[in-house]
């Protein structure tokens, strides 16, 4: 619409965050490529890094943590499963790379590529080890503290990367592709949990095409780089709201001089209690006592072991100098506390599952127990929807059936990998509950459909589902009853409920289902065919 004006484009893909999804033909390109396992892959990556010069020549390859198994210790069946997980990951990454190439090509077609400042970052804060020691076909199980057996993963092998799985790979693959660093995403104390590659291009403005820059920088430095490059002052007020100062350092100074010292002198890191501090070439690091696939930390913050690295001589943090230089370590520990206080990191919080529990997040629905919707709505995030987890509740729908067989969704939340739906099927009120896409867990039945044997009549009816929660620990079961005009028409037992999260990308919908369906009884969007006058949820 305005081809003569400058443009800003922000293209944020899902790669390489779980779930690892890609077209099958992209995944199949890598068949057999990872059969030698994660130990060999890590060595191969490191050799290429050295050959390309993207790591210093004296860099050491850090060893595999004791918590991760050697590839040669696995059974042939395990190796088959885990190799396929890596093929899916590689297909996902390369497919994403191709789509980014399409964006670059489109800018080139406009004749503006030489006049465009491009930043390319790919990764997931270090590769993610949340798949644990088996990988996963449904990562929501991880976030709800539910174990997944190797047999379940094996049974879904042919579905990995497709719409039937919310899949992740074995933690050791994350460690392998984070070569040459220690650890993985979540463990922000070490570079394996924070470092990603960055490519910057700007036509002829950056003369040294293909050159390397080794100054220390952080992702918060991208915004100030753009502002300086295009000559825009940082705004103090936007739409009447005073802005926080941008907490980054422009990269522009490094474009013309590969050897100039870094302008970004100090940077703290913290995630789930893992702590790190960089200061002018030195790094102090404290890994907290919980691995990315574990639920609870084994240590307190005071019990954590602090390490010390001189990354001007030790790029991969291979040589811990804490015992040789306790004074420097103490200085950096104090600096971490100052930076943490300055940037509102304190108090430290190492909770995991609780952070995924939406009820601890204050918002507009906090404190409310009654919610009424008067029309079809879609796409309400879990944190902004009524929280039915770990409690009794009721759902009441006032409907007007215009014909026999009126059907469709009244209200639903979540989908294929965890969720519930209250709907009419051929006029029959139905409540379906899907516990983490599982059939059986600890001997409990986990897919429940409670359905009336009789349909509603033509005209106005009030349909109600009433759930009585057993109480106790999160995720307990309960009993559900269906009523038509205050007359009970069905009852059923829900043995196990979702304790923490129904989804990461599925939503709460009224009058339709905009994501995947919680059950295969209907196909989305399954919009209600009658007149849905109102739906009320009461939390008890």
Keywords:
540 residues, alpha+beta, 22 strands
What would your notes on this structure say?
The chain is of the alpha+beta class. The protein is built from eight helices and 22 strands. It has helices spanning 24-28, 38-52, 76-109, 140-143, 150-155, 171-177, 222-230, 326-342, and strands spanning 118-121, 198-201, 237-238, 241-242, 266-271, 274-279, 282-286, 306-310, 370-373, 377-380, 393-401, 408-415, 418-425, 428-434, 440-441, 444-445, 447-451, 459-469, 478-484, 487-494, 508-510, 531-539. The protein has a six-stranded antiparallel sheet, with no helix packed on it. A hairpin with a 2-residue loop joins β3 (237-238) and β4 (241-242). α2 (38-52) runs parallel beside α6. The model has no long low-confidence stretch (mean pLDDT 94).
Strand content: 15-25%
The biggest beta sheet reads: 6 strands, antiparallel
Instruction: Please give the number of β-strands.
Output: 22
Average pLDDT, all residues: 94
Give the low-confidence spans.
Answer: none
Structural class: alpha+beta
List the strand order in the largest sheet: 9-22-11-18-19-20
Rg of Cα set: 27 Å
Helical fraction equals: 10-25%
How would the global form be characterised? globular
Q: What distance separates the N and C termini?
A: 52 Å
| Helix count, DSSP H or I runs of 4 or more residues | 8
The run of helices and strands is HHHEHHHEHEEEEEEHEEEEEEEEEEEEEE
């Amino acid at each position: 619409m305005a081809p003569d004006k400058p443009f800003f484009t922000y293209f944020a893909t899902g790669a390489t965050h779980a779930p690892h999804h890609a077209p099958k033909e992209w995944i199949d390109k890598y068949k057999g490529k990872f059969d030698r396992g994660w130990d060999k892959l890590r060595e191969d990556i490191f050799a290429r890094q050295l050959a390309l010069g993207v790591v210093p020549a004296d860099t050491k390859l850090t060893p595999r943590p004791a918590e991760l198994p050697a590839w040669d210790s696995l059974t042939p069946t395990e190796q088959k499963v885990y190799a396929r997980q890596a093929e899916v990951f590689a297909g996902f990454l390369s497919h994403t790379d191709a789509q980014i190439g399409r964006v670059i090509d489109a800018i080139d077609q406009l004749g503006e590529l030489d006049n465009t400042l491009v930043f390319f970052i790919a990764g997931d804060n270090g590769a993610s080890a949340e798949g644990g020691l088996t990988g996963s076909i449904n990562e929501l199980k991880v976030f709800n503290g539910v174990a997944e057996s190797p047999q379940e993963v094996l049974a879904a092998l042919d579905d990995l990367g497709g719409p039937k799985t919310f899949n992740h790979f074995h933690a050791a693959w994350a460690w392998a592709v984070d070569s040459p660093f220690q650890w993985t995403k979540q463990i922000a104390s070490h570079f394996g949990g924070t470092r990603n590659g960055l490519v910057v291009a700007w036509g002829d403005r950056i003369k040294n095409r293909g050159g390397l820059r080794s100054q220390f920088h952080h992702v918060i430095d991208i915004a100030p780089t753009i502002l300086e490059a295009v000559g825009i002052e940082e705004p103090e007020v936007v739409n009447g709201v005073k802005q926080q100062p941008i907490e980054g350092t422009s990269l522009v100074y490094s474009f013309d001089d590969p050897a100039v010292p870094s302008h970004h002198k100090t940077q703290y890191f913290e995630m789930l209690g893992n702590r790190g501090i960089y200061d002018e070439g030195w790094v102090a690091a404290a890994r907290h006592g919980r691995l990315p696939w574990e639920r609870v930390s084994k240590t307190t913050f005071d019990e954590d072991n602090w390490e010390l690295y001189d990354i001007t001589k030790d790029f991969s943090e291979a040589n811990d100098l804490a015992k040789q230089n306790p004074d420097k370590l103490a200085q950096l520990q104090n600096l971490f506390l100052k930076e943490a206080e300055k940037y509102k990191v304190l108090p430290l919080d190492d909770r995991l599952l609780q952070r995924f529990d939406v009820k601890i997040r204050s918002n507009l629905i906090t404190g409310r127990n009654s919610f009424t919707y008067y029309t079809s709505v879609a796409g309400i995030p879990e944190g902004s929807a009524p929280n039915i987890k770990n409690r009794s509740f009721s759902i009441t729908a006032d409907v007007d059936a215009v014909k026999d067989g009126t059907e469709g969704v009244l209200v639903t939340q979540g989908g294929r990998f965890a969720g519930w739906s209250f709907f009419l099927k051929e006029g029959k009120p139905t409540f379906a509950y899907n516990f983490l896409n599982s059939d059986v867990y600890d001997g409990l039945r986990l897919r429940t459909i409670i359905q009336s044997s009789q349909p509603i009549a033509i005209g106005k009816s009030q349909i109600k589902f009433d759930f009585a929660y057993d109480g106790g620990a999160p995720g307990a079961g309960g009993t559900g009853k269906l009523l038509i005009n205050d007359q009970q028409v069905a009852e059923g037992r829900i043995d196990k409920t979702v304790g923490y999260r129904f989804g990461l990308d599925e939503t709460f919908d009224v009058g339709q289902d905009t994501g995947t369906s919680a059950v295969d009884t209907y196909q989305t969007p399954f919009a209600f065919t009658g007149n849905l006058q109102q739906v009320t949820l009461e939390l008890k």
